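Aggregate trends can hide what the representation actually does to any particular protein. In the encoding step, the backbone of a single protein was reduced to a row of integers, each denoting a local shape. The record that follows shows the chain in one-letter code together with its fold in token form.

***
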Amino acid sequence: MGRVVSFGLTVILLIAALASGSLRPAPVETVSFFNRRCAACHGKDGTLLEERFERKYRDESELKKIIRTMPGASALSGEEMDALVAYMRAISRREAYLIWTQQRDGELEGEIAPADATLKASAKRQSLKVERVGTHRWRVRLPKNVKPAEVELTAERGTRRTTLRLKDSPYSHAKP
């Protein structure tokens, strides 16, 4: 009986969360975390990792298991680990990575890697001004009539393009 009630409550909470359109920033600044905790061995922005290294792992859980053994990664929550795996996926593919990390006073902030990737933002088919506020940080001030769910960020690294639609995820490369 308890399992049925628990399952029912879980379903109701999931439906409520989806219906409310709860859109929120990622719980971790992945690029900063990587550069603080991982870059000493793997290079800034993962430059010492071989291209397409993600193919070595049968599935994402195997990659997560390896990451958990690395210094500083064992304390990451599930959501934080998912964002870090997405960043690792971008590094492996040599693509730009985007993550939305803060929202306050009509502004969105996040990170981009590598630092030399270009970034554009738009909403409702109109360009939004993007400020680079640090080596890997960006900021977008939203017009009053624009909601975060309407924002699309596009980063370019060489000829490769990464698109992040905030309505879908707070970070790029969310799924393989």
